[in-house]
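Action item from last meeting closed. Structure (434 res):
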């Protein structure tokens, strides 16, 4: 009897230990961007401090969006932390799909998060995701090529100047494209870029009555300008290029200019990765001459906890660690201030060492210039700059971006792409009851 009881006790202890071990492992879904990859390299330090193991699921942006959306809507429970952004967070928070982050520690200092980021990641004043980094978009350009062309980049360029500069810097014989821009299908990839380009030409997704606007002249002008610019001075196959593809091209010295996320600045100026690190300048995202809106967006890649996770406490510990002031200082100590995750905390931009980083002020200026509540020239019924903050948008915009990418690839005309975009958007919005 004693032996049986001892065996039972040992078995129970083993099961409890196994359960405890299991309880100390969290699974995180994230995007394959450089700052996220860098974060994974420091995860061992988090585990040493807390005893919590971390399993990473690292995915390309379009795949990540699909996987986490499917998981949270079906209550799949695959992830304890999801990397999401300003589009998903307020909608999912309102639906009760995310754990509120309203009890973070005093040391974490939630009030230090930049207001633009905190507001975009909240619903009814409650924070539902913590920003790992924040971004807008801006022009990154080769100062050496600009000088050789006899041009000087304005701090606030127009699209007309961008085309002139692209023509001057384009050098096919030396494998240099005048400009590199996103064309990849996906609402958050090429879809995001062409949406803010549309804003800067006076276009909008919907009028005040939720009527699709792709049949309006502003969209035709914006899309024609973009396609002509890229066909003349962009890289071959630009229809499949997204953030990471263009980053690689720029780092290899194959782009005179690149207009994209401000977060890319640390990578294009890092001499370990970029062949042109010493010749990069920055400017605000462009506008069409006479149009007040610029092609800048507002975004944060943020960490959120799906409701129903069995690892809520451990997940909150990780979020506090990864999005803290201490994490920023950890990266700065090991890799320099230029490589810390930008755009999330006010205190970062008050740090004297960071103020010396050449792109710091332009990043902050670009973020502050973006207003999701006033994204377009004419009035609109929605919030969001490179997206429309309604649940139906992701599906609609993915389809629209596919039609645009087909036009970029020469598979259909611009007019056909716009007609299809108008039809798709109208049909989906009517079906949704707008």
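Sequence:
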């Amino acid at each position: 009897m004693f032996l049986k009881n001892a065996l039972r006790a040992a078995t129970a202890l083993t099961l409890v230990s196994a359960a405890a071990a299991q309880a100390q492992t969290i699974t995180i879904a994230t995007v394959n961007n450089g700052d996220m990859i860098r974060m994974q390299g420091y995860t061992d330090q988090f585990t040493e401090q807390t005893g919590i193991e971390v399993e990473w699921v690292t995915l390309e942006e379009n795949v990540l969006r699909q996987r986490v959306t499917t998981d949270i809507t079906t209550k799949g429970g695959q992830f304890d932390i999801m990397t999401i952004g300003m589009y998903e967070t307020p909608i999912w928070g309102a639906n009760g799909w995310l754990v509120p982050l309203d009890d973070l520690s005093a040391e974490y200092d939630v009030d230090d998060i930049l207001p633009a980021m905190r507001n975009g990641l909240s619903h009814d004043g409650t924070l539902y995701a913590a920003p790992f980094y924040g971004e807008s978009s801006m022009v990154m350009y080769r100062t050496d090529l600009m000088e050789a062309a006899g041009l000087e980049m304005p701090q606030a360029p127009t699209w007309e100047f961008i085309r002139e500069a692209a023509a001057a810097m384009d050098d096919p014989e030396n494998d240099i494209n005048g400009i590199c821009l996103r064309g990849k299908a996906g609402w958050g990839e090429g879809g995001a870029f062409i949406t803010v380009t549309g804003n800067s030409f006076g276009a909008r997704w919907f009028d005040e009555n939720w009527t699709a606007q792709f049949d309006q002249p502003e969209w035709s002008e914006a899309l024609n300008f973009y396609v002509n610019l890229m066909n003349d001075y962009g890289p071959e196959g630009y229809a499949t290029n997204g953030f990471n593809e263009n980053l690689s091209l720029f780092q290899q010295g194959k782009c005179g200019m690149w207009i994209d996320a401000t977060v890319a600045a640390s990578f294009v100026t890092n001499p370990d990765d970029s062949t042109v690190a010493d010749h990069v300048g920055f400017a605000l995202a462009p506008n069409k001459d006479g149009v007040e809106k610029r092609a800048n967006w507002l975004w944060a890649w943020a960490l959120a906890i799906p409701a129903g996770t069995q690892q809520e406490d451990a997940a909150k510990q990780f979020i506090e660690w990864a999005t803290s002031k201490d994490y920023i200082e950890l990266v700065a100590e090991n890799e320099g201030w230029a490589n810390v995750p930008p755009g999330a905390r006010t205190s970062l931009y008050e740090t004297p060492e960071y103020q010396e980083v050449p792109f710091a002020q332009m990043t902050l200026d670009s973020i502050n210039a973006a207003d999701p509540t006033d994204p377009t020239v004419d009035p609109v019924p929605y919030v969001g700059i490179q997206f429309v903050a309604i649940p139906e948008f992701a599906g609609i915009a993915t389809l629209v971006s596919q039609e645009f990418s087909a036009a970029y690839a020469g598979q259909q005309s611009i007019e056909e792409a716009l007609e299809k975009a108008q039809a798709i958007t109208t049909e989906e919005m009517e079906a949704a009851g707008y």
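Note appended to the action item: The chain has two domains: 2-135+298-355, 137-296+372-431.
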